[in-house]
């Protein structure tokens, strides 16, 4: 399974905001620290705010912060918001029945089960699980920050 760039950026933003939970962060600092463009960030930030994960503040002293506690932001929920719904393989969404093996194929069922297990695993995780007690992440994103506060 491959995760889109938008989903990856969404998690970068959320983890960055979680680590810097005690202040507003700016799009430009996230872009610089996470090596991504501000234009990509702007689009994803807008969606994260619309979905209720981020609170944004405009103006000179503006920025963004988490709109709810880390423990209340589900990884599976965010993943589903950013990843287009659809079949993991073409035959699972085979509306025109173009695959001649559909009636007897066990692979499609195995892949559907695997995708379901993948989503179920993500549903058990929160943003706090990704950030809290993860000093390696802090060293990369914010060496001066303190991990573990919600």
Question: Keyphrases for this structure?
Answer:
150 residues; mainly alpha; Arc Repressor Mutant, subunit A; two-stranded antiparallel ribbon; 7 helices; 2 strands; elongated; disordered C terminus
CATH architecture field of the domain at 5-85 and 126-141: Orthogonal Bundle
**C-alpha Rg (nearest Å):** 18 Å
The CA-CA distance between the termini, in Å, is 31 Å
Spans of 5+ residues with little confidence (pLDDT < 50)? Answer: 145-150
CATH superfamily of the domain at 5-85 and 126-141: Winged helix-like DNA-binding domain superfamily/Winged helix DNA-binding domain
3D shape? elongated
Q: Name the average pLDDT.
A: 86
Strand content: 5-15%
Overall description:
It is built from 7 helices and 2 strands; from the N terminus they run αααββαααα. It has a two-stranded antiparallel sheet. It has a domain at 5-85 and 126-141: Orthogonal Bundle (Arc Repressor Mutant, subunit A). With 150 residues, it is mainly alpha-helical. A hairpin with a 5-residue loop joins strand 1 and strand 2 (63-66). 49% of the residues lie in helices and 5% in strands. It is elongated and about 60 Å long. The model is unreliable at 145-150 (pLDDT under 50). Helix 1 packs across helix 3, helix 2 (27-34) packs across helix 3 and helix 4 (75-82) crosses helix 5.
């Amino acid at each position: 399974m491959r995760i889109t760039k938008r989903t990856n950026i969404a998690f970068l933003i959320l983890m960055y905001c979680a680590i810097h939970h005690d202040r507003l962060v700016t799009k430009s600092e996230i872009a610089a620290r996470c090596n991504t463009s501000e234009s990509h960030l702007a689009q994803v930030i807008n969606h994260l705010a619309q979905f209720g994960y981020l609170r944004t503040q405009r103006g000179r002293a503006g920025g963004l912060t988490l709109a709810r506690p880390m423990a209340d932001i589900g990884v599976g929920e965010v993943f589903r918001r950013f990843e287009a719904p659809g079949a993991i393989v073409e035959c699972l969404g085979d509306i025109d029945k173009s695959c001649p093996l559909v009636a007897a194929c066990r692979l499609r069922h195995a892949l559907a089960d695997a995708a379901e297990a993948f989503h179920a695993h993500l549903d058990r995780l929160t943003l706090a699980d990704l950030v809290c007690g993860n000093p390696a992440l802090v060293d990369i994103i914010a060496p001066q920050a303190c991990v573990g506060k919600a």
